[in-house]
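Teaching note: in complex prediction, the entire set of molecules is handled at once rather than each chain in isolation. The prompt given to students was simply: 'Predict the structure of this complex.' The entities are:
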Amino acid sequence: MNETSVLHAVDAVFDREIAFLSELVKHPSVRGEEQSAQDFMARELAAGGYEVDRWEIDVNDIAGMPGFSPVIGNYDNAVNVVGTLRSRTRRGRSLILNGHIDVVPVGPLDMWKRPPFEAYIDDGWMYGRGAGDMKAGLASNLFAIEALKHLGLKPAADVFFQSVVEEECTGNGALACLQRGYRADAALIPEPFAEKIVSSQVGVLWFQIRLKGLPTHVAYAGSGANAIEAAIPLFAALHDLEKQMNAPQCRHYDFACHDHALNLNIGKIEGGDWASSVPAWCVFDVRMGLFPGQSIDELKQRIEQAIAEAAKSHAFLAQNPPEIVYNGFAAEGYSLDEDKRPVAREALDALGRAHKFVSGQELEKEAITATTDARFFGLYADTPALVYGPKAEAIHGFNERVDLESVRRITQSTALFIADWCGVEEL
Amino acid sequence: MNETSVLHAVDAVFDREIAFLSELVKHPSVRGEEQSAQDFMARELAAGGYEVDRWEIDVNDIAGMPGFSPVIGNYDNAVNVVGTLRSRTRRGRSLILNGHIDVVPVGPLDMWKRPPFEAYIDDGWMYGRGAGDMKAGLASNLFAIEALKHLGLKPAADVFFQSVVEEECTGNGALACLQRGYRADAALIPEPFAEKIVSSQVGVLWFQIRLKGLPTHVAYAGSGANAIEAAIPLFAALHDLEKQMNAPQCRHYDFACHDHALNLNIGKIEGGDWASSVPAWCVFDVRMGLFPGQSIDELKQRIEQAIAEAAKSHAFLAQNPPEIVYNGFAAEGYSLDEDKRPVAREALDALGRAHKFVSGQELEKEAITATTDARFFGLYADTPALVYGPKAEAIHGFNERVDLESVRRITQSTALFIADWCGVEEL
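The expected output is the structure of the full assembly:
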């Protein structure tokens, strides 16, 4: 096997890869609705000669594990799929190829140029919710292996292809894979960070603030009794905390040049029932980042303090103390860059070589301001997790899209990386 | 007939009145769900010897009429009920007894001591959504007539008992009664204003402000791109307008002593889809008051100006101009006090005498900061509309309740007023 033949093999299977990706995007796998996408995935893996493990996550199995996030709603139909490709020779190092099947909500449909699950291609981009984040990555994982097969080869070590749910709100899908016993010498997660390697990622905490008060007919509306408007000073208090946490002296070293790595987002709000009733309730959902090494519990304390402080000096809130509920992400930060063990350096070097062969460039590092499932492998299973995927735009936005030539390059680098890391054996 | 016998007659039917009110409160007649309550009403009227007219409102019939408010949702099942009690002699003045069957939403159930449609009695109060606003009024209208019947009498002029929908969001139910041809020499509406007569009422305009923008993954959240937080400067701009409109020099004479008659209420909000996506949309519903004599169109212009002005100097809003949608109330103010015609003075005097006989007190006037259906009779049908009803608490709030002894007194005054205004004839 030479490297160039691997690139050509990816070219040879690339039409099939695009067709696969297109089909995958057409499954609208928002939270709770991932089953049809997972069925498709399981079928494709079985057809490709993988042993398929498909199971429903049981919260009780994972609730006590480090990295667990409190669960929103129920887990009926929260289904993971793992395909195992066993090596006969086991000469090389084993590998987890991980990707998440869940996609974020589409938002108002009229803000999309075309329906979000159409998976149409325009000018070299495939459009659709999840096209970039991260169904292209799942496709790339699968077709890197297909390319090797096209050459009559397969990895000379066990490879575990994981298609997990819940990446976008808790990470409990990847955690359930750990609980089920899946382990390998390294993990690759092709999240769409534009062909860079993620050196560090922030943590993420989700919380909900609930305000309740005593409503009246609007005819008797006094100032300060409005639960919707009472949220405003809380927004301000939270943004103050955000500012403090982003101060230069508070940053993780890998984020030293990021002026604003930790974003606080008021992502969702709902309140009141009737234009002419003073609203008695308001609920809003917040996402806050934290640096690798920072403690979730400490962040919770700071949030609770900031909210309590703001409530004290506000007529409505002092009478009606806000309730803070944690549901969804309780995710620590993770820095691959801090993993100085040989296995981590070797994995990075192997990926760097593959990347350079495909692109002609050194592999650039990036400290990202989002979280990924990499933390589970890195923090809780001593497994270096390489986050390296294609270029995408408008992820979580409207007209989300992924650059197909970038997908091709990532598939090529991935195939080369697998051949290097795992070695190859005859099919 | 002497006055005291009328009071006793109300006492004699009062147990039945409470039973009727209790049954009526148990029908959860929120908008779109008024049918069972109206069915009950129609049955009771038919049983009481009224000719019953029950019809579905057709928006096309009323859309061109003055006082029409734009409609939220559809009008399937928007049903009015009018019972006509014809006089043989027609010696007196005819009368409309009006009340609305619709109630506002209940809000979060856990904020109610007991379920909102249980209609339980505690310490002389009947509790329940709509108990005060205004099913007690409907009961009082009906049992004032029942009390006369108890004496072997009925009104000596045609009486139209109206049970209308849509009072709480448009007033189109009362408007549809006008369109259907119902007219009388006066109207009585027992809205729960604590046994006072409403001398003037404000107008009400409802509008919705819709914000849309371009969302991104929260990892790339810049400040100012959040559609939820972009609502805050608009709240401020609207409250500025509210302040201007309440300035002493801007007040209607009957509200001269009201420091804050025109309440602007941010009553409902919704925005965003996901804690970790920068929200691309936010919608909020506003209620604003206006004085009698002020024009709806002029108020709309001022609102549009205030919103446009605020948007100009805000990064997000300048790029994503807010949309203003008018749905629901476009209600002018109404002042009975300004109606100097003899018919209005006579109606007021008759009610004043009845009130004084029952309570021993002069009838107090009140300029109210809410609207009622009185405006349709007063402004668009030259009919003096007397708004005079029982004492209630927490209307539009939790644990809404009505004072049953107050309901008794209002029923007594109403019976006396009918006997005076319409005269009586043998059953």
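Point out the following to students. Chain A touches chain B through 58 residues (CB under 8 Å). Chain A has two domains: 3-200+334-426, 203-331.
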